[in-house]
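Pipeline run #58 for the internal structure catalog. This entry was flagged by the ingest filter as a single-chain record with no existing model, so it goes straight to prediction. Upstream metadata was stripped on purpose; only the residue string is passed forward. Reviewer on rotation: M.T. Logging verbosity set to normal.
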Amino acid sequence: MPKVVDHVSYRRHLLDQCVDLFAQYGYGALTMRQIAEALHVSTGTLYHYFPTKEMLFHYLVEEVTGQTIFEATSQIQQQATLEERLLALFHFIEQHEEDLRKQFLILLNYYQHRDLYGEPAGAMLKAGAGRYQQAIMQLLGLPDAHICFLLQSQINGLLMLRMINGSRRPFLEQARPFIAMLVDYLQKPSVPEENKEKLL
């Protein structure tokens, strides 16, 4: 009897391995043949699941973004207060720091060599970033995109600095001062309209 293959699971398995490849070598440095060799599959098998490298990258961004949001949501949405949700977010990042660092490296490689990626890849990454922003805003109940941008800047900055410095301190511990400041800022009462002119 022929072996039954779960094609969806197998494609996800291949994509999981591709994250490491793209993070280490970059999109432009890899051919489909090299990817197949690294994954220990035939080029025919790889082309069966991903007709082109561009399509492979598209599936990669979709899969990684969707899975990260799904896993983060399951942890964060259980929390009641803003502070608890922020702590849960940074705890999630701490647990998945290595995977998120790889995503960050892929993004950096794109901005270094965007001419090798082409416009479709840039559009995919931009869409993925938009999904992250929307998920964070919904999960935390942030008032606007500017606050979300500040939060994402802090997360990416910490990921980069910890990578450069080889920091071994817990991610959440390093993020606690920022969390406290952000919670304090967001929970302050709004300035009444009649007093705004005095601040200008």
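catalog note: The radius of gyration is 20 Å.
catalog note: Confidence is low (pLDDT under 50) at residues 195-200.
status: ready for reviewer M.T.
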